[in-house]
């Protein structure tokens, strides 16, 4: 009997499941064997028995959940073909955050790619997305509407630096998610020539240290708790998005509140969050890149996991590609799932 795509991947209560390999991908409930695309909390959960992921993702999970986040873990080197049951799997860069990978599942020439979250825009903190030709492509659709086109990140970071030069006495507080976005903003600031210290909220420290240990150059970072009030005039501070509005931010002299997110394209969201300087910096593909990626994979069938699924499914139809929305529960904007409140309080 020849292999069908449904033997390679199907949907169960716990999430995406490979029957021939007997494993789940990014399950939202504890399972026997989980393959994890990346360290965001909506994809990487604690409590599985066996976990396979890239070495970076395993280390991110250990930092977030403790060393005992699973019973046994197995590193998957990028590009390495690994046999699991009756299938072969391979982890390929997804360009989303440090360690993020697409998971390629194949047997007898039939190939399914679970892309996790991904982007095509350059990111100095992780390897770029690689297109893998496949039969079935599993995609997210966080920004799956034609209105979402992300600008060049360099221009967004320059807006921040221009504002800092214009208001040298004010503290610029930048809301950014603790895994990936915060470190990307730091690396982009360095690329655009900011060589002063970058101050960090406590919730950013552990993952930023991990990025540095992994060899990502982020320059000098300082704990904001250790800083004198006078040293924070003109400083750039990175904190969790929720902190830009709360009491925490009030200790800074006349702050300029900024938020680095793809959602900052939506003016109303920026206003509603009280953001003075919105920075459109996204770790997810925008609409043109979602469409381009689907085309480039040559997939005849597309499954859309989460986000704005309907528009992307409709677009696939106009391209003659079979597509279905999965409406996966438990996935979402990475920010909604992280950081955990306890972590934020740190
Ligand atoms: Zn993610
Ligand atoms: Zn996600």
From TrEMBL:
Keywords: Exonuclease, Hydrolase, Ligase, Nuclease. InterPro entries: MBL, Metallo-B-lactamas, RibonucZ/Hydroxyglut_hydro, Xnuc_lig_assoc. Its EC number is 3.1.-.-. It comes from the Bacteria. GO terms for molecular function: exonuclease activity; ligase activity. This is Ligase-associated DNA damage response exonuclease. Gene3D superfamilies: 3.40.50.10890, Ribonuclease Z/Hydroxyacylglutathione hydrolase-like. Residues 31-143 form the Metallo-beta-lactamase domain.
């Amino acid at each position: 009997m020849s292999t069908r795509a449904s033997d390679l991947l199907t949907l169960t209560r716990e999430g995406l499941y490979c029957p021939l390999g007997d494993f789940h991908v990014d399950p939202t409930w504890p399972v026997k064997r989980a393959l994890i695309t990346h360290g965001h909390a909506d994809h990487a959960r604690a409590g599985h028995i066996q976990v396979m992921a890239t070495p970076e993702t395993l280390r991110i999970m250990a930092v977030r959940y403790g060393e005992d986040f699973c019973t046994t873990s197995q590193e998957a080197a990028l590009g390495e073909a690994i046999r699991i049951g009756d299938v072969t799997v391979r982890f390929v860069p997804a360009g989303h955050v440090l360690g993020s990978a697409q998971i390629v599942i194949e047997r007898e020439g039939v190939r399914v790619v679970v892309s996790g979250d991904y982007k095509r825009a350059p990111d100095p903190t992780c390897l770029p997305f690689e297109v893998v030709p496949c039969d079935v492509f599993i995609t997210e659709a966080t920004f799956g509407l034609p209105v979402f086109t992300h600008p060049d990140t360099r221009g967004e970071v320059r807006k921040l630096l221009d504002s800092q030069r214009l208001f040298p006495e004010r503290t610029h507080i930048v809301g950014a998610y603790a895994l990936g976005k915060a470190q990307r903003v730091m690396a982009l600031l360095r690329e655009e020539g900011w060589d002063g210290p970058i101050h960090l909220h406590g919730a950013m420290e552990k993952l930023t240290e991990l990025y540095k240990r992994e060899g990502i150059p982020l320059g000098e970072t300082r704990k904001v708790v250790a800083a004198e009030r006078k040293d924070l005039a003109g400083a750039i501070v990175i904190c969790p998005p929720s902190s830009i509005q709360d009491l925490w931010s009030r200790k800074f002299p006349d702050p300029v509140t900024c938020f680095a997110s793809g959602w900052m394209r939506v003016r109303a969201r920026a206003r509603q969050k009280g953001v003075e300087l919105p920075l459109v910096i996204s770790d997810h593909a925008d609409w043109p890149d979602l469409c381009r990626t689907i085309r480039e994979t040559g997939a005849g069938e597309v499954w859309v996991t989460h986000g704005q699924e309907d528009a992307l499914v409709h677009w696939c139809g106009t391209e003659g590609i079979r597509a279905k929305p999965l409406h996966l529960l438990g996935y979402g904007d990475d920010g909604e799932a992280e950081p955990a409140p306890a972590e934020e309080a740190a």
